[in-house]
Here is the input.
Amino acid sequence: MQGTFHWLRVQAFCYATEDETRVREALEGLLGGCGFETTATEGEHGNRIVLMEAVLKKQREFDAVFGSLRPVIPELIGGISDRVDGDCVFRTRLDKQELVRGRCVIAHHGDVVSVTGKAVSHPARKEIAETNLVAYLEGLQSS
Here is the structure.
């Protein structure tokens, strides 16, 4: 079987007003044991911002992340054409605060954990990438 993605990036910003430990634990849960890197930086007003990011390249890592997304798979499938662009890049955003509470919810605002990945598609066409991703998500949903 061919892979689902060439790469998958999961990224979250943790702001000074947030509990970094809780955000870290939520991201660890989403990643299903895959590690991630943290980079501390400073905001415009001197506030601490921590970038937490994982770049995944193995199918088992993709499976771990999307296994965590099972509750929202129907929503991902239903909006797949809006989530895959012309370069075959899949994007979705999860509500970071809900993730900290242990719930997986698609976000429609800015405080998010972003999931972005280059979908495998031969030839590289949006429609083929969408079809491949729907088949992958449906397979996860039924397992």
